[in-house]
Structures
1.
Amino acid sequence: MLTWVDGHPQDAVPVADRGLQYGDGLFETVLIDRGQALAWDLHLARLRRGCRALRLPEPPIAALEADRDGLCALGPAQAVLKIILTAGGAGRGYARPQPPTWRRILSLAPAPEWPLAEYRDGIRVRWCRQLWFPDPALAGIKHLNRLTQVRARAEWDDPQIAEGLIRDADGSVVGGTMSNLFVVRDGALLTPGLRHCGVAGTMRARVMAAAAAQGLPVRETALSVMDCLQADELFVCNAVRGIRPIRQLGARSFAAGPVTRALQREIGPPWPAPGHGAGW
Ligand SMILES: Cc1ncc(COP(=O)(O)O)c(C=O)c1O
């Protein structure tokens, strides 16, 4: 893995960094496909929203893009770029130094495998016991405090289970530990609204736009466990793994259906999709 800190090859940051001390910062995980950052504008838009939510200045876009280009020129053409933007040096306790300084930590790792079977047949998903508690001010953004997902992901070590779904204290489903959830019911596409908690994914935005372009009704709404179990189709998505149908949720089995297939086809490569992949 290649890592740069503030534009220089380095893989350590000062102990006083506010990202380490307080989780004071944001991150993005960007897929690099044939050397190009996919959905870059959506990642920047979420970073900007995150800065506003954390009362930080505008993100240093030009420096981030220079880092991105420099790192991508050195790494594999298919890669995952992780961008961590912290509020820099310590200040006094929780009070930030004024004006805050940024620290940019970028790392580039090879892209994961995308096994055909996960895209064609689907993945196994479980329910997590860990709940996602509301914090509307931080809902949707990708800040550095991710203990809800860390705790949820620690609930299983069965490699056959690819994802876990997290609910809020009212029993509404928020999403996966690392992905957003979509339910297909009666020809409409439904996804949790994420006004109280959760991460509003860049792939979620792409999927909603693709569905709307196909004339599919799309609604953000509260989804219960029963809504999921009674779904015609279910899938999860994120920027690195694209759209993967759920073939098993707890004890219930599902078949990947036509809406999921059409959206996989529309979002297209680099992930396996009907008509795009060998043997599919
Ligand atoms: C909790 C959670 N929800 C959703 C997502 C999907 O976001 P994106 O589509 O930008 O990868 C992620 C990504 O890591 C996540 O951690």
2.
Amino acid sequence: MDRPVVHIIGAGLAGLSAAVRLAESSASIVLHEATRQAGGRCRSFFDETINATIDNGNHLLLSGNRSALAYLDAIGARDELTGPGRCEIAFADMATNERWTIRVNEGPLPWWLLVEGRRTPGVRLLDYLGALRLLWAPKGAKLSQVISCSDRLYERLWRPFFLAALNTEPKDGSAALAAATLRETLAKGGRACHPLVAANGLSRAFVDPALRLLQKRGAQARFERRLRGVEFSGDRATSLEFEHDAIALGERDLVVVATPAHIAAGLVPDLVTPQQTSAIVNGHFNIAPPAGTPPILGVVNGMVEWIFAYPDRISTTISGADRFIDAPREKLAADLWRDIAALTNLPDTLPSWRIIKEKRATFLATPEEAARRPPTATRWRNLLLAGDYVNTGLPATIEGAIRSGEAAAALALERMEQQ
Ligand SMILES: Cc1cc2nc3c(=O)[nH]c(=O)nc-3n(C[C@H](O)[C@H](O)[C@H](O)COP(=O)(O)OP(=O)(O)OC[C@H]3O[C@@H](n4cnc5c(N)ncnc54)[C@H](O)[C@@H]3O)c2cc1C
């Protein structure tokens, strides 16, 4: 009997993680990617302006991102993530010029909160207890309905933390998604909160080793193959329509649609997905950071929110950045640099730069949009969904995307066994 074929549409991290998992099975795997490059919203490219390979956006992981780390183990790339090896995150407040470093102890008993020099300055110990309410937050609640979003703890810890995780103004964000992030990271103690970055680039960590592994296992990756439509009959998808050809699906073949939400909604009839998106703006500056610059700096009351110091350049991130999408890049670069120069004591002269605006970086993580996330299974028995917008219970992150791919792979294996 011929081997079943699993067609995976989209080679972002959701599609790649599904492919890596399924490549261990007896099925033939074919990955169809619309563009010339795998990685989707998590990719590197060579930029001539700053003469370096840079990422579309700085991606921060935490050591509690267990699926992301397991995926890196599977593709042999865990070493590509680097970090301080402990939960230590530096912050600066541009309104008061204060600096502090949060130092969370490794174990689950949070004694770091008792030590003044380890916690957020100007915050009482009691204030942290309010966060416990989040762990029992009702599903449809906004963060502001569960914890205080006007005090110092919010401004200096919860807002930066949840803005990075949800890519949505946290007070309007889903309390359930914030709670899921908290449960998998800070609530487990510092051991689950070591910051990690792909210092040599996202593609070298998450994408290229996966493609090599897939090739070794006999899977095919086809590029510049945009899926235009799917034909259905009864409870099955029967054909995949690409620009120049079509593939008729065999009785035992499966399809995993691992595109962004708005593309999936155009391919799969009646599919309900989140519709509102939220932008991220990244600035890359071609200048080595001065000695002593923390590798990751959270900024409060600035335009810039996070500063990443790489050996040869400085990068910045602004999340929930729809307000900057139409701003001229020259102005964004100049304004960001003003913050960076003030925080690092570098000269005011703007080095060469690159601004990357990702308009649809993630879905808007409000309770209303979260309620529109579909499950992995669809009403077609041979068509499954993967992608950071699928209902993983996590926000749209690397961890969520990888977990959605794993869930699709697990269900595909189950369906193949039933046949
Ligand atoms: C600037 C930025 C910063 C971020 N920062 C972080 C962070 O710090 N930490 C974190 O964890 N997450 C972060 N994220 C989120 C993370 O990158 C995404 O959640 C994740 O990469 C989404 O993966 P995906 O596979 O679901 O979707 P995508 O990456 O969008 O992959 C979908 C793929 O499908 C392809 N495709 C689309 N249409 C078709 C078609 N018709 N046929 C074939 N292929 C198609 C696309 O080209 C793409 O390659 C950030 C995202 C951005 C944009």
3.
Amino acid sequence: MKTITLIFTAAIILLFPINLFPTDVTVQLAGGIEKIDYDRIDGIDAFSLSQLAALLGERISWETVGISAVMQTDRHRIRFFVNSPYISIDDTVKNLTFPTALIKGNLFVPAETFTPLFDQIRQERITWDKERRIIRIDSEYFTITDLALSTKANGLLIELFISEPKEYEIYESEGNWLNITIPDATVNRRQILARKNKKIIRDLNVFQFEASAQISLRLRRPIEKYSSRFTPNPGRIQISLLDTTVTISPQNGVGKIGPDNKIDRIVIDAGHGGKDYGAIGLKKTKEKKIVLDISKRLAKLIRKEKLLEVVMTRDKDKYISLEERTRIANESKGDVYVSIHANASLKRNIRGFQVFFLAAAKNDDARAAAQLENAPFLAEINSPDDFNSDNLSLILSDMIQNEFQEESADLASMVDREFRKKLSKNTKARAIDQAAFVVLNGVYMPSILVEAAFLTNKDDEKLLNSKKYRQKVAEAIYAGLKRFKAKYESK
Ligand SMILES: [Zn+2]
């Protein structure tokens, strides 16, 4: 009987030699699976804490080499004495029952008694699986779990993944630091620090404070403009940093809306307003009044169906500067921007509706429309006489719209199609065009500018003065928006 057992044991040793002489412990973390050294101290499972600390982005430093060591985490200080079961966590002495050891320069700790103590002071949930020799590090416990950095044609997108919606605060500090503070949050420091990409950012710091967590990014370029929003599924804070020094490259369509892929908020920009009348018709019809009415009709249609939220840059006869329009659009975190206008020309026979998106103008007519719409804004910057094509190229080099150019062109074509369906019986359909509209520049989302008709044409002016036509314009824009929403949300 005894011989049989012996043979059996020998067979097992031959078949599973690794199981009987283990050399490592598996560490399971969010980022994958790692191995650290395993050993047995007086028959007790032990692992290299030096290696585990390194995996967690921490360090063990020797106070007296081979005698005492310290592990300093964000919140706690653990002190070890080699060959002693006693450790101190901050000012409290704890007994591990079994002693630590120094093996090949590494500090080894008894797995079963050290892990629960370690778990208590860490943000993660840390457990020891004796059967399988696995240390499980569960970062689900964190509220801030990960960071993603991606460069865009016109700036940088920072995404901070967060397990639940949280209040947050962003502020800049000297040395090009952008700091994001989240109260009552616990941050997965190791995971986030692993995202440090020197090509994109200069430096990255993660702080876990008692009542908050802070992520600080040192940027490569001066911070000029940024906008931020919370986006669900997965929950994340998205910060778009705009690099306004980028020059335009029309091919740069990035296939991204928003910055997320949901289209749920439209910014309606009624052109002109207040002291800025816009174009004036032959019968003294004011553009500012016509476009406000169309904008309100559009808002009403959208609010009725509740497919989109509406933000209006103005809903009364009020002057709004370019900066204000852009700020309203970006701060409201709109997904689409539609600026509504009526056109004018020195040639009274010119008529029709037209849809534009922002890009360098290709022809004189488009340039003329842009000049007309840009005039009030440029007047704020320069004296009106200063306005010439050089100013336009200056504005173009400042454009931040190129990231959304493809989507903007797409949206323009969808609205144009609806215009043709609904309005071409009434007036002329003019081709979609592109031009350098200041009012679209600086808006960080796909955007178009529509010219409902020409106030300087007798028949068009009559149309613009009819409720029926204005309603049709609003309906056509809305139909185009719905197409756009359907297309981009199904991507
Ligand atoms: Zn206008």
